[in-house]
Specification:
The structure holds 2 protein chains of 2 kinds. Chain A is mostly helical. Chain A is 67% helix and 2% strand. In chain B, the strands form 2 sheets. Chain B has a two-stranded antiparallel sheet with strand order 1-2. Chain B has a two-stranded antiparallel sheet with strand order 3-4. Classes of the chains: A mainly alpha, B mainly alpha.
């Protein structure tokens, strides 16, 4: 019975069911907007990809937002030059960000540890600065890259596809408008991509390749002594996670066709690290959970204001109510980043394994779930 | 020639800030082995020490404006001016330099609190976790400052007497039109003094000798019966103090806002890596070098050859240095090598 839950098919079935039914279960917690659900899916995908690098190999990259940005720009250019069908844009964006990751990874992976983090950070900041300044013809600088009515769209023109009666054509997936179904089509689209991405990640986790990556994390020296050249494996992991980031960026574009340089800033890279850590590094579901929690918290916390807080604490006597409002107020609304930072610190300090570790601990408390690994653990 | 002199001064000025922050960063690396992403926040806190001090000095009361006779007009007058007259006004004018006195105890306390309260628990954790927790701390500090002071930059002017420009050109026998702001010159000198003080402290005092011994071989020093941990905590406080002082003095150049630390942090990290992790001299050297390189790259003549070079020169240099000389310019063997 236990093994049943470990088979790929069952995991994928459960996972797909949970993801696709998001509009149903997100309703009671007040998260049932296509906008927010799309963010869950996109950042989930981003984090899943990031986890392939950070979770499996332990290499902390601080520059993954650059790949997201490159993917976004590539996708917008595909929309502008080729066709409004997002399919091509997504494929192109994934390939281009993969190539970009190949170059950056090839250089950065010559070093490890903190030096690797700084190198990726330097590359990301460089791309960000370039996107803002010199590369303005490609990136449109501060304004951000957008689609316009008079873009060439050669492929669309070649096949004679035009969208009548609209100034700026909308993105579509083989004829299905992304914005249709009150925006839910966009969510289902992103969700299906997420499920595919998750399946690939699952396969990687359970492949000999994934095992080698984990071996790199636990002891790289020993790995080299057994005769493996670790560099190609690391580089593949880096490129794969870069492609995931580009894919996530292109889906952002598919849903809302514009791309800006601020997506590449290093704090944006920090955010995906945060999601991965919060959910649980090196676990399959964790990063997605982290992404969902952060995006959900962002949505809920940043919308609250003083009056709503006062209402929320209505049950208490007035003095306590005022005190509560006074304490909670800096953490919500504009100050929601404070809760984010505090949450982040608490997780790193007390729960380095993230939410997944927390769940496991609770399960163990009740005697279910797996016992603490004694035999398998690496000999530290 | 004029342009070159100006660029060198600009570079020294920027480099002074980089060098001061990087010095603190590398002190924390070399002694405690901590990768402190909250160091930029300490720089920002220093700048806000100046803001707070200025606010305290200018606590005002509304008084009747005697110069307006037609109707009742009121103006704000700081208590200091009422109590002490002209001397009070002078104190208010000199708020930024005086706030150093205020910043020293504050920054040392913050440094000790940070080390004892948080960083102590992260010695044995991985560098990734150290980076993450201090990154979180930096966000928290930033947001707290933002909550109290708002998101807009707060002007903190330099004293009137040095708010003008110095005739640098005339001094060097060059064009008379060549002038440079006094305060920036003061900043360069100040940075030199602080850097010199830190080096002298480490080089010529017994305390500094023990710390250097601890940096070289912590275990042996411990075996000799010296409580190296306590000294390292003090070194961390000094690192915080250096960053804070850099921030205080930088506040007239760049009006402090809650985000200024982050911008400097990334660059200072690059500076530390270029200089060599854990190498104090390397950090200072790389700070000034990169500052000067950056200001030369932003000359129009250079920009017309390679557009956008001023934006990326530092990162480019860092990448090249890391690949060619993995230990950085003056890096020691065995520091942060895994």
């Amino acid at each position: 019975m236990k093994n049943l839950f470990k088979s790929n098919a069952v995991i994928m079935l459960v996972f797909s069911a949970v993801v696709l039914s998001a509009p149903i279960w997100a309703d009671p917690i007040g998260a049932n907007y296509p906008d927010l659900l799309q963010k869950f899916a996109i950042f989930g995908l981003f984090a899943v990809g990031y986890n392939i690098l950070f979770g499996l190999t332990g290499y902390l990259s601080f520059g993954h937002a650059a790949f997201l940005g490159v993917g976004s720009y590539a996708a917008v250019w595909s929309l502008k030059l080729l066709t409004m069908n997002v399919f091509l844009g997504i494929i192109l964006a994934t390939i281009i960000s993969g190539l970009f990751a190949l170059v950056i990874g090839f250089i950065s992976l010559r070093r490890s540890g903190i030096y690797f983090s700084i190198l990726t950070l330097a590359f990301a900041q460089m791309s960000y600065s370039l996107a803002y300044s010199v590369l303005t013809p490609i990136t449109n600088g501060e304004t951000g890259l957008q689609i316009a009515a008079d873009d060439p769209r050669f492929l669309d023109r070649l096949f004679g596809i035009t969208q009548e009666g609209v100034a700026i054509p909308s993105t579509h997936f083989f004829g299905f408008d992304i914005k249709s179904m009150d925006g839910y089509f966009g969510f289902y689209f992103a969700a299906v991509v997420l499920i595919i991405g998750f399946y690939i990640a699952l396969k990687i986790f359970r492949s000999p390749f994934g095992l080698k990556l984990k071996a790199i994390k636990s002891n790289q020296t020993r790995m080299t002594y057994t005769g493996f050249n670790t560099r190609p494996y690391l580089l593949s992991a880096f490129v794969i996670s870069g492609m995931y980031a580009g894919l996530a960026g292109s889906i952002m574009v598919a849903i809302d066709p514009l791309a800006g340089a601020e997506r590449m800033q290093w704090t944006a890279s920090g955010e995906v690290v945060l999601m991965t850590i919060l959910g649980g590094v090196g676990t399959l579901i964790g990063p997605m959970l982290g992404a969902a929690i952060i995006k959900y918290a962002e949505n809920i916390f940043s919308a609250l204001n003083n009056t709503e807080l006062t209402q929320m604490f209505n049950f208490a006597p007035e003095t306590i109510q005022n005190a509560l409002v006074f304490i909670v107020e800096p953490f919500v609304g504009k100050g929601w980043h404070l809760s984010l930072g505090a949450m982040f610190m608490l997780v790193v300090i007390f729960l380095p394994g993230g939410v997944m570790e927390g769940v496991e601990r609770i399960l163990r408390l009740f005697g279910i779930g797996k016992k603490k690994k004694v035999v398998e653990g690496d000999a530290k | 020639m004029d342009a070159i002199l100006i660029q060198i001064l600009n570079g020294l000025d920027k480099g002074a800030a980089y060098a001061l922050i990087a010095l603190g960063l590398t002190l924390a690396f070399g002694t405690l082995g901590i990768v402190n992403f909250a160091h930029g926040a300490l720089f920002m806190l220093g700048a806000f020490c100046a803001v707070v001090f200025q606010k305290i000095l200018t606590i005002s009361v509304k008084v009747k404006d005697e110069s307006v006779t037609l109707f009742d007009a009121y103006k704000e007058q700081p208590y200091l001016e009422i109590w002490l007259g002209d001397f009070g006004a002078a104190i208010v004018d000199w708020a930024v330099p005086l706030s150093i006195i205020f910043a020293i105890p504050v920054m040392i306390l913050i440094g000790i609190a940070m080390e004892r309260g948080l960083i102590k628990h992260f010695y044995k954790r991985t560098h990734a976790e150290q980076i993450l927790v201090t990154f979180g701390l930096a966000i928290v500090i930033q947001e707290i400052i933002k909550h109290f002071f708002g998101a807009n930059p707060i002007p903190t002017p330099a004293p009137d007497i040095v708010s003008g420009s110095a005739a640098v050109g005339a001094f060097f026998g060059l064009s008379d039109n060549l002038v440079y702001p006094w305060w920036r010159l003061i900043y360069i000198v100040f940075a030199g003094v602080v850097i010199f003080a830190v080096f002298a402290f480490l080089k010529f005092t017994t305390f500094g000798m023990v710390v250097r011994a601890g940096m070289a071989d912590r275990e042996t020093v411990g075996l000799l019966g010296i409580n190296i941990q306590k000294r390292f905590t003090i070194v961390f406080a000094i690192a915080a103090l250096v960053a804070g002082l850099a921030g205080v003095m930088y506040s007239p150049i760049l009006p402090p806002d809650y985000y200024m630390g982050m911008e400097f942090l990334v660059l200072s990290f690059v500076v530390v890596v270029v200089g060599g992790m854990g190498s104090l001299g390397g950090a200072v050297l790389a700070g000034f070098l990169l500052g000067i390189l950056q200001s030369f790259a932003s000359m129009n003549e250079v920009k017309s050859i390679i557009p956008g070079i001023d934006q990326i020169i530092i990162y480019l240099v860092a990448i090249v240095v890391l690949l060619v000389r993995p230990r950085g310019l003056l890096g020691r063997e065995g520091v942060f090598e895994d």
